[in-house]
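Usage

Read records sequentially. Each one opens with the input sequence:
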Amino acid sequence: MEWLAAVGALANPISNIVDAVTGTGKAKAEAAEAAANAQTAAIQAQIEHDRLVAEQQRQTMTFALIGVGVLVAGFVAYRAVA
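and closes with the structure output:
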């Protein structure tokens, strides 16, 4: 079993040397980082979109409430005069 530990201890530096020569490890890391950055940007864009939709709905409800208030005030004024 000791030979297995020795092989494992040698495998990591050898794979680092191979990655350094071929650049595959760095390319994979850069690709993973780019994918993570793209996913983060997509999540942030979705959050901003949801925030804008919520703001638009809030404005719509506010104007609807004002409109109903004006209608009720008009009706009350009409009934008071008539």
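Summary fields computed downstream for this record:
- The mean pLDDT is 82.
- Residues 40 and 58 are 27 Å apart (CA to CA).
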